[in-house]
Design goal:
Blueprint (H helix, E strand, L loop, with lengths): L1 H20 L21 E9 L5 E19 L2 E8 L8 E6 L2 E4 L4 E4 L6 E8 L8 E18 L4 E16 L5 E8 L2 E4 L3 E13 L2 E13 L3
Antiparallel strand pairs: 1-2, 1-13, 2-3, 3-4, 4-5, 5-6, 7-8, 8-9, 9-10, 9-11, 11-12, 12-13
């Protein structure tokens, strides 16, 4: 009995020792999704929609936009892809690349981030033509990523997308330079993993402060190289 007891103690100690020496197996990190797959030959086609202040929407004429990746190029030691698109779609025109979850162009401007939900990723401002007699229109635009994914319905499919929330403010000035009115609204861009941009609110027509008409692009069809 004494020998059996000693054997059991030694066996138990051996098991404990082996378990303590076994390295912990850490789970492999997930491969981050590409929110705009880049390969020469990829393209995306978008249909325009006009949406009034009551939520009524209609296809906007027969006008569609296209985005094509036509070539790649090395710029300052980094590989970029050249995006070309139809007339009127200037947002994604030029050289772009994915940089650790950021979509940036060749001058360093940020258009999207899959990881930064804290900082303003881009900002813009500008003057437009006189909106009304004796009034000048000035706007500011700041974009920040929203961490909550949203379901986006398009003619091509429904997508679970990350949103680049653009907050735009219009300032109305009189000839004396005084602000007479402001209007704040949003210009959002939606990106689906491994697909690209699936929806984009890119313009507002402001007839009155509470009567806004917005124009959206929604993904109609696309081709992505494997």
């Amino acid at each position: 009995m004494k020998k059996q007891f000693i054997f059991c103690v030694l066996a138990t100690a051996a098991v404990i020792f082996l378990n303590s020496c076994t390295p912990e197996i850490e789970p492999l990190p997930e491969t981050p999704a590409l929110y705009w797959p880049m390969s020469v030959g990829n393209y995306w086609i978008y249909q325009h929609y006009k949406i009034d202040s009551l939520g009524n929407e209609l296809p906007f004429r027969t006008y569609i936009d296209s985005v094509y990746i036509v070539k790649d190029s090395v710029i300052r030691g980094k590989k970029y892809y050249k995006f070309e698109n139809s007339i009127g779609f200037e947002k994604f025109q030029g050289f772009f690349r994915d940089s650790c979850g950021y979509l940036i162009n060749s001058t360093g401007e940020i258009y999207f981030s899959a990881t930064n939900f804290t900082d303003t990723i881009s900002s813009d401002y500008g003057y437009n033509k006189p909106y009304r007699p004796n009034r000048l229109l000035f706007y500011t635009l700041k974009t920040k990523m929203n961490p909550a994914k949203q379901v986006v319905n398009t003619p091509s499919n429904s997508y679970n997308a990350l949103v680049a929330d653009g907050f735009i403010t219009f300032y109305y000035y009189n000839e004396a330079g005084d602000v007479t009115d402001t209007i704040a609204t949003s210009l959002n861009t939606y990106f689906a993993p491994n697909i690209g941009m699936v929806k984009d609110t890119y313009r507002y027509y402001l007839e009155t402060k509470h009567d806004k008409v917005k124009i959206e692009r929604r993904l109609l069809r696309y081709n992505i190289q494997e």
